[in-house]
Write a structure and sequence with these properties.
This protein has eleven helices and eight strands. By secondary structure, the chain is of the alpha/beta class. The strands form two sheets. The chain has a six-stranded parallel sheet, sandwiched between helices. It has a two-stranded antiparallel ribbon with strand order 1-2. Strand 4, helix 7 and strand 5 form a beta-alpha-beta unit. The two termini are 34 Å apart.
């Protein structure tokens, strides 16, 4: 079908993000020689990249991680309670192992053994029970169709990240970053800064999708706009942060709207 857009509409599509946010544009009339000011509606630019947390965001592994930590904790005679949530959910195995090491008594003296056990139990559960969360595959395919790079930015070990990537389709991701890839993990900004650098984009031009306060803190410290989809712990909306109950409602237009004008510069 022939292109029905006016010349000014086609020009808008080619404008830079900063120019798209300009409220008025001059239009010259060839008939009268006069210049008129025409109102344009700003069109949000898509993010330079979308950086996905993995556990509890892409796949239903936050429950698997909690169950894995609970199994290991019970094995040392120190069952988990709700008090342990901040030191388990959204945390790498080394952090949770250190937490159990500090609070678990004599049976938790072997820190390296606890870390290895947590990794092994979690990897086994993930391999058996990977389930993409609602809306994930559709959103990933929409990003691919729009040539917006998607990345996994996870606090899980490399072997678990690779299992999930392959289960969801490796060609859907331009990059995967695991806990071994940075010195500091979430809530430090390092993982999101490293992912943006590897993709060659400004983190302020990216949207991070997270499900825990720990992950949100990491992404926001790196300068990313955040779409939060809480899995277990409530997360409040804030400046530069949008909260949804599911990725079923997320699309490219919504991701563009998450970013503030300053972040799109």
């Amino acid at each position: 079908m022939p292109d029905q857009m006016t010349p000014s509409a086609r020009a808008d599509r080619l404008m830079t993000p900063a120019a798209q946010r300009s409220t008025y544009a001059a239009v010259h009339s060839t008939h009268t020689g006069e210049t008129h000011m025409t109102l344009h509606t700003a069109v949000p630019s898509p993010p330079a990249a979308v950086l996905f947390d993995m556990d509890g965001t892409l796949v239903d592994t936050e429950r698997l991680w909690w169950d894995s930590a609970a199994e290991v904790a019970t094995g040392i005679g120190r069952p988990l309670t709700s008090v342990d949530i901040p030191d388990v959910l959204g945390r790498p195995a080394v952090h949770t192992a250190a937490h159990l090491h500090r609070t678990g008594g004599p049976a938790a003296r072997d820190l390296d053994g606890l870390t290895a056990r947590l990794d092994a139990v979690f990897a086994d559960r993930v391999a058996r029970e990977i389930v993409p969360l609602p809306g994930v595959l559709r959103l990933l395919d929409e990003l691919a169709a729009a040539a917006v790079p998607a990345a996994i930015v996870s606090a899980s070990p490399r072997r678990v990240v690779d299992l999930v990537r392959d289960a969801l389709g490796g060609d859907r991701f331009a990059l995967t970053l695991a806990v071994e890839d940075t010195v500091r993990s979430k809530p430090a900004p390092d993982p999101y800064l490293a992912a943006a650098a590897a993709l060659g984009v400004d983190p302020r031009a990216c949207v991070a999708i997270e499900d825990t306060p720990t992950g949100v803190a990491s992404a926001e410290a790196a300068g990313c706009a955040v779409l939060a989809v809480p899995s277990t712990t409530p997360i409040r909306p804030a400046a530069g942060r949008t909260v949804l109950d599911s990725l079923k409602r997320a699309d490219l237009a919504l991701l563009a709207s998450v970013m503030t004008p300053a972040e799109r510069n």
